Structures are given as structure tokens and as C-alpha cells.
Amino acid sequence: MPLLVLLAAASALLGTAPASATAQPAATGADVNGDGVEDQVVLQRVEDEPENQELVVTVNGERLVAKLPVDPHVGVRPPRVVDLDGNGSHEIAVVEQASGDVLAFSVWGLFDGLRAVSLADGTKLYAFEGGGASALNGYGCAQGPGGREFVTAGGWLRDWNEPRVYEGDRTTYAVRDGIATRLSATPVVGEPGAPGYQVDPAACD
């Protein structure tokens, strides 16, 4: 099953989110412009808009703001600092939807303003993590011939009556100037420990 189908199906699971919500902002530091100075990053709910959150990045005294969705039942999750292309400028991975099993991330950086990483057709790039017993989803980075590559992997349990064999794929992207270009998509069939499902989020640091 193609990864995009897997991710769409995983997104459908997000209606099972717990009822408790987090209204407190989450903050971290990241060098979003690559100048060696840590910039302030804050993620917070939008007042009177329970379906939205704000990503606020302050760079050299300038406050940049992007509005994006949030699961109103779960609230703000701590953002993650990543560097998808290995150029020393950080991006921010933000949870837009969450359930007990699946997290759905968009990734934001300074690309002629504060923008989300997108595919060539302009649609937002998403990474998923989790899936419980029925699915595997994860992301990471790896070194490729042209530099750092962003990697996503996902699979669905093929048959509940068989051993834990998942069917899905592994996709690699080159991310440059906020555009993710797909380099490869490789089918994967195997148990959770299959090489094709192995991804390392820490490799995106």
C-alpha cells in the first residue's frame, strides 16, 4: 500500500484522541536562520480558536507567526527541533493532530518567511509517528549521495491471524529551500524490525 494512503488512513484514526487538552504554551530554542544564535520558538493555542495553534519564532527581535491546526481534544504538544537538509538552519516539527497511537507532524522553517515544508505541488509535507499494533509509522534522516535525506516509513498489519507482518513502504526526500522532492519509494513487507521500517528521528538533529 503506498505511503500516502497509509498516512491518510492513519490520520483517520485521530478522532480517538483523549478528552483532556493542554492550553499551556510550549517553548524551545532553535537556530532557525543558521547564524549560530539560538532563537526563541513558542507554540501556543489561538485565543477563541480551539481548532488552531500559533507557531511564534523570534529572530533578531523580529516576531514571525504562523497559524496551523491543532487537535482541540489534545492541545499543544512540545515542538521538535530538526534539520532536514543538514545545512545548520533548524526547522520545527509541530504536531497538528494526535491520538493515543499516532502523531501527525508538519515541519516549519525560514523559507522567505516562516513557512511549512511542502511538496513540489504546494501541498504540506507531513510525517507520522506511531500506529499501535495495527500500523507502523516513523520518520528520520539519513545520509545520501547528495547530502542529508528525509525518510518516512509506514506499514499496516497485513493479517491479524498471521505473525506481525506489515506491508507498506519507505520514502526518501531531498528537502531544499522548503521544498521536499521525492527521491525514492520502496515497498516494504516484513516484521517491525525489517530494515525498511527502521528510521532514526535523532539523525535529523
Account of the protein in words:
The chain is globular and about 55 Å long. The chain has one helix and 14 strands; from the N terminus they run αββββββββββββββ. The chain has one helix at residues 3-12, and strands at residues 26-30, 39-46, 49-59, 62-69, 80-82, 91-98, 102-110, 114-116, 118-119, 126-130, 135-144, 147-157, 166-176, 179-190. It is mainly β. The strands form three sheets. Strands 5, 6, 7, 8 and 10 form a five-stranded antiparallel β-sheet that branches.
Features:
205 residues, mainly beta, five-stranded mixed β-sheet, 14 strands, 52% strand
Show the helix and strand layout.
Elements: H1 3-12, E1 26-30, E2 39-46, E3 49-59, E4 62-69, E5 80-82, E6 91-98, E7 102-110, E8 114-116, E9 118-119, E10 126-130, E11 135-144, E12 147-157, E13 166-176, E14 179-190
Parallel strand pairs: 9-14
Antiparallel strand pairs: 1-2, 2-3, 3-4, 5-6, 6-7, 7-8, 7-10, 11-12, 12-13, 13-14
Can you give me a brief rundown of this structure?
This protein is mainly beta. It has one helix at about 5-10, and strands at about 25-30, 40-45, 50-60, 60-70, 80, 90-100, 100-110, 115, 120, 125-130, 135-145, 145-155, 165-175, 180-190.
Low-pLDDT parts are 1-21
Give the DSSP E fraction (strand runs of 2 or more residues).
Answer: over 45%
Largest sheet: 5 strands, antiparallel
What class would the helix/strand composition place it in?
Answer: mainly beta
Number of helices: 1
Question: What series of H and E elements makes up the topology?
Answer: HEEEEEEEEEEEEEE
Mean pLDDT metric? 89
